[in-house]
Amino acid sequence: MESITIPGTDLTPSRVGLGTWAIGGWKWGGADDANAVRTIHAALDRGITLIDTAPAYGFGHSEEVVGRALAEYGQRDKVVLATKTALEWQEGSDGVVRNASAARIEKEVEDSLRRLRTEAIDLYQIHWPDPRVPMEETANAMQRLYRDGKIRAIGVSNFSPEQCDAFRQVAPLHSVQPPLNLFERDAERDIIPYARREGLVFLAYGALCRGLLTGKMHADSAFTGDDLRQSDPKFQSRFTQYLAAVEALTQLARERHDKPVLALAVRWVLDSHPNAIALWGARRPDQVTPLDALDGWSLTASDLRDIDAIIDEHVTDPVGPEFMAPPARED
C-alpha cells in the first residue's frame, strides 16, 4: 500500500485510509459491532494504516468501535488515528450542530481519547467551521492540545482557503479534508490548490461517492430510514444520470485495465492528486477486499481525459455535496 508523509510531522499514513462514517451507524442505518471490528482488522491486514473517524458518527459509537478494534489488534504505534471535533448533539436528537468553541473542543478531546483507548490522537480535525465562534478561539484551543501532547497533528475539514489562513494565524495546520470524488470536484477549484501550494496533505472524503462508484447500485436501489442518501439528489431525481455514467466508467475500467470501477474511482483520486489520501468507507470485511485491485497500475493521461468526457456526457445536471453541511447553532 502506498504511503505519504504529513509535512511537519513524523506521520506516514497509507494513501488509502479507512473512513468509519458507515461503521458508526450515523445516517446509514444500524451497524453490527463485531462485523465492524472485523472490517477494521481486514483493512489493517491489507496495509491500510490510517483510520479516520469522528464523534458525530453514531454519536460516539464509531470511536468506541475503532478503539475496541485497535485494542484487540494491537500495533497501535503503526496506525495513524484521525478523528474530529466541533460538532455537538443533544440526547435524543437525530442530528448535529456546529460548535467549535474552546469548551466544546476541550470536552470532546477527553471523550475521544477515552473512547479510542489511546493516550494521544495522531490527527485531530475541526469537522466543520463554526460561524458563531471566532477562528482565533478555535485555533487557540487546538494549539493548546497540540502543545500538551494530546494530539500530534492538526487538521481541518470542510474549510475554505480563507478560513485556513485565519486558522494558521494562530496555530499550525497539517492537513485539510474536503469531499472529493469523480462526481464531486468543487474542492479542485480552491482548497486542493491551496493545500498543494502550502504543503498540506489532504484527505479526500467520499472517494466512492457514498457507494455510487462501487458499481453495485441499480435503478431500483432503495434508501430507507435515516440513510443520508435520501437527501442527496444524486440518488433521487438525478439517479439515472449518475448510473449511466457509472456504467460507462465500468466499461472503461474493465476494457483498459481489467479492474472494477471502484478501483478506477480511487486511482483517479490518487493519480490526479499526489498529495491526497483517499478515504474508503466500508462496514463489512468483504468491502475492503477490492483494495487489492489498487496496486501496480495507474491511470494514463488518455484515461483521465476520457473519464471527464464520460461524466460530461452523462451527468447533464450535476450536484455537489453541499446537502451534507450541518447547521450552525441557533441563538
How would you portray this structure in words?
This protein has helices at residues 33-45, 61-73, 102-116, 135-147, 161-168, 191-198, 239-257, 261-272, 301-314, and strands at residues 16-19, 50-52, 80-85, 87-88, 97-98, 123-126, 154-157, 175-177, 201-204, 276-281. The chain is an alpha/beta fold and 331 residues long. The strands form two sheets. Strands 1-2-3-6-7-8-9-10 form an eight-stranded parallel barrel, surrounded by four helices. The chain has a two-stranded antiparallel ribbon with strand order 4-5. The chain is globular. The protein starts with 15 loop residues before the first strand and ends in a 17-residue tail after the last helix. Residues 26-30 have low confidence and may be disordered.
Average residue pLDDT: 92
Give the strand order of the largest sheet, numbering strands 1, 2, ... along the chain: 1-2-3-6-7-8-9-10
Q: What's the Cα radius of gyration?
A: 19 Å
Q: How far apart, in Å, are the first and last alpha carbons?
A: 47 Å
Helices and strands: which structural class? alpha/beta
Uncertain stretches of 5 or more adjacent residues: 26-30
Please count the helical segments: 9
The biggest sheet amounts to: 8 strands, parallel, barrel
Shape: globular
Give helix % range: 25-40%
Count the beta strands.
10
What share of the residues does DSSP label as strand, in percent? 5-15%
The SSE string, one letter per element, is EHEHEEEHEHEHEHEHHEH
